[in-house]
Amino acid sequence: MTTATDERAGSSATTPGVRLQRWLRRHGWTIGVWLLLLAFILWYATLIPAFGEFQIASIARNSLPTVYLALAQSVVVIAGGIDLGIGALMVLANSASARLMEDQGFAMTLAIAVGVVLGAALLNALVGLLIAVSEIPDVVVTLGMLFVYSGLALLVLPSPGGGTSPGLRFLFTGSETGVGTNYWMPILMLALPTALLAWWMTRSRRGLSLYAIGSDLGAAYLSGVSIRRAKVVSYAVAGGFAGLAGIALTTLANSGDPRFINALNALLASLAAVVLGGIVLGGGVGSVVGAVAAGIILFTLNPILTAMGIDPNTTQVVRGVLIVLVMMVAGLLEWRRRRAE
Amino acid sequence: MPRQKPSVWWLLAMLAAIAMVVAACAEDEEDAVDDEVEDEPVDDVDEDDPDEEEPDEEAAEEAEGDFVIGVSNTLVGNQWREQMVCSIQAESLASGMVSDVVLANRDTDASGQIADIEGLIGQGVDAIIVNPHDRTALDDVIAAADEQGIIVISVDQAVTAEQAYNVTNDQVAYGELGGRWLFEQIDGEGNVAYMRGGDGAPADQDRDEGFRAALEEFPDVEIVSEVFTGWDPSTGASQALDIITTEDVDGIWTSGIDYPVVEQFEAADEDFVPVVGADNNGFIEQLIELADDGLTGAVVTNPPPVGGVATAIAIDLLAGREDHPQDTVLTPEVYDNIDDMAALEDLYLPDLPQGFVATMEFEGYTTYTQEQVLECEGP
Questions:
Q1: A338 or B224: whose pLDDT is higher?
Q2: What is the tens place of the pLDDT at every residue in B230-251?
Q3: Is the CB of A331 less than 8 angstroms away from the CB of B16?
Q4: Structural domain range at position A234
Q5: Residue-wise pLDDT tens digits, B113-136
Q6: What's residue B18's pLDDT?
Q7: Nearest C-alpha in A relative to B138
Q8: In this complex, do A252 and B124 lie within 8 Å of one another by their Cβ atoms?
Q9: Is pLDDT above 90 for B217?
Q10: Residue A34 covered by a domain
Q11: Which three-class secondary structure string do you get for B193-261?
């Protein structure tokens, strides 16, 4: 079931037809989620009077934090873990960056951004190390970290505030004020990290080792994969992306917000995106590219449900039902496919 | 590798099971949603389409009244906020000038509120009423709305954006008026418990400023206990029980967590001391019914109809009927159960729950009936 094995089988396929079939089968879910996103955006376009650059830019930049966090969670889940502290780490990065970046120039804020991302990676790497060495389940350790990170965020920034530079806002949102119609920058900021991560996960030794330990610890060990190192790497990469999500939040609102509820909302969104994106909880299966589309879908639901005039109190129900329905349909398709084989 | 399969199967089976349970529970909900989609706002919004590009002409054309009002609120499940939103719905309906109210109503943070307001701009609303999560974070998105000719009114708390109108209750006066009533009630000397609201909230800071200003005029009054209730009734109740049973207090000022405090006097079987609270239905009931048992107290109003007032102002501005100042500050009223018993009895709503805020209208601005607020149905 590992991508690594499939990869080799695919390259030795005989006819182009068979190759296409295999490719479709392997990436079917990812393609499906992207089609679903496309359908959602088209649907949204029919719901509002004028759909244009402003809406595309709005969706692209406001999805950034959810997407980065979905990528972070994907890496950990593919490697067989789960990170409940990831949302709180984002809030910590958001609080710290907003406090440090206030009234600073572009160069300084960029340096702080790099520092925060690396710092978050390092912090979460320590969490990975703790899990790998102690062999305490991921859920337990990261649940603890949820509270540790949240507490740290409140220590760094006791109440909402702070700021950043117009230049850094442009880098993430395509506009120095955070509002506008330039959608190229946010789309680039969505695509570039995703492409890099997807390439690394499926083409590099280290990335493939994450699939290996998520798929079968014993087999991975016998094939010479350092399980400890792979675990630490998965948490470090996730930490880096959580840091990036925090910076994106800072540039969107031009402030930081340390409250616990933000950490919880972000965590739940990241888990929903991972599941919807076709990454199997338990590890070894799925693509980070699917989680990106799922992250954008989760954001796009807000304006869609508002545009439909749905009672706000039923919005949450609709959101939950949608996730479960998609999973049910996917599960049914998977079942039929397996039976056909 | 075959060992992997069962775990995937397991997951799918579990998800399917959960899905069926949830789907069964939510079936009615979904049907309701489908119905709403079919006959609700989609068509209305489409009709506005041609107007979209020239916002200035739009106002003139729609003077007859076909305005769309957007609402952005970031705290859900709070009685005061619910009533604020309902007063917007009621005023929109009563005015006959509004064709639709679009609600962006969810628990979120400043960046989420910015995204929500962008969504409202995209829907081609004529005015946006926002209860801001943050004083400064919305500046740029409000400027963007203003560029599109959309009127933005901030209610409850003011924002720093210069394009926005602000309709707020005067929270400094709220703290000062209630504080002064209490200090005069205990003849300018004694021990007072100071039960504040949410730590760091702008409204709490403003009330504190007013309270301290009143306190300065009474040098012999001492604050013996200062706590943050977080505007949570159960937190306030346990703090009040602590204060009543361990401190010797002559009066209690509360930031709106009032009826749970009075209940603690009854629970602890202690004699009442003067209590200052807000216009919560339960507190008004206590002031009326327990007056003979020795309870004195004062209600300081903090009316949720700021939403309705903002709606009325938005409609005036859109229709070009009347100009309004950039800031509208509504001064609270003080009613005690010594001199103003008639006013309290007038406010009291016997059929409604304790937490309901009794001030439902605002004279000179709102035109709806109380029933319309309770129904909470927009146009």
A1: B224
A2: 888 899 999 999 999 998 999 9
A3: yes
A4: 3-9+57-259
A5: 999 999 999 888 999 999 998 888
A6: 52
A7: A253
A8: no
A9: yes
A10: no
A11: EEEECCCCCHHHHHHHHHHHHHHHCCCCEEEEEEEECCCCHHHHHHHHHHHHHHCCCCEEEECCCCHHH
- A132-136 CB contacts, 8 Å cutoff, 24+ apart: A132/A227, A132/A228, A132/A231, A132/A232, A133/A228
Q: How many domains does chain B contain in total?
A: 2
- pLDDT single digits (tens) B296-353: 999 999 999 999 999 999 999 999 888 889 999 999 999 999 999 999 999 999 989 8
Cβ neighbours for A290, distance < 8 A, ≥ 6 positions apart: A29, A30, A33, A34, A277, A278, A279
Dihedral sign (CA B60, B65, B66, B72): positive
The pLDDT assigned to B38 comes to 34
Q: Which residues of B touch A177 (CB under 8 A)?
A: 140, 143-144
Strand partners of residue B168: B329
Question: Is there a domain that residue A73 lies in?
Answer: yes
Determine contact, residues B103/B71, Cβ cutoff 8 Å.
yes
Model pLDDT, residue B211: 97
User: Within an 8 Å CB–CB cutoff, is residue B14 touching chain A?
Assistant: no
Same domain, residue pair B164 and B313: yes
- Is pLDDT above 70 for B106? yes
Do B149 and B246 fall into the same domain? no
pTM here? 0.79
Residue B293 and residue B177 in one domain: yes
Are B128 and B117 contained in the same domain? yes
Nearest to A321 among B22, B40, B103 (CB): B22
Same domain, B310 and B266: no
Q: Are B71 and B164 in a shared domain?
A: yes
- The DSSP annotation for A33-96 comes to HHHHHHHHHHHHHHHSS--SHHHHHHHHHHHHHHHHHHHHHHHHHHTT---TTHHHHHHHHHHH
**Does B336 fall in a domain?**
no
Most confident segment among A215-229, A251-265, A310-324, B252-266 = B252-266
Q: Confirm whether B82 is domain-assigned.
A: yes
Partner-chain contact B18 A324, CB within 8 Å = yes
Angstrom distances, CA of residue A129 to CA of A139, A214, A228, A258, B323: 14, 16, 7, 26, 64
Number of domains in chain A: 1
Is position A247 within any domain? yes
Is B8 a domain residue?
no
Same domain flag for B227 and B248: yes
pLDDT (mean) for B289-293: 94
Q: Residue B70 is part of a domain; what is its CATH number?
A: 3.40.50.2300
Q: Quick check: A335 and B110 CB within 8 A?
A: no
User: How far is C-alpha A241 from the chain's CA centre?
Assistant: 8
Tell me how many residue pairs between chain A and chain B have CB atoms under 8 A apart.
Answer: 179
- Residue B32 is predicted with a pLDDT of 36
Q: Do B41 and A324 touch (CB under 8 A)?
A: no
- The total number of residues shown for chain A amounts to 341
Interface of B with A in 68-107 (CB under 8 A): 76, 100, 102-107
Domain boundary among B280, B300, B320: B300
- Among the residue ranges A278-282, B16-20, B55-59, the one predicted with the least confidence is B55-59
In a domain, B36, yes or no: no
Domain range for B368:
45-170+304-331+361-375
Q: What is the mean pLDDT of residues A193-219?
A: 93
Phi, psi of B327 (to 5 degrees): -120, 125
Q: In whole angstroms, what separates CA B168 from the centre of its chain?
A: 11
In a domain, A285, yes or no: no
| Pair (B165, B175) in one structural domain | no
Tell me: the pLDDT tens digits for A239-265? 999 999 999 999 999 989 888 888 998
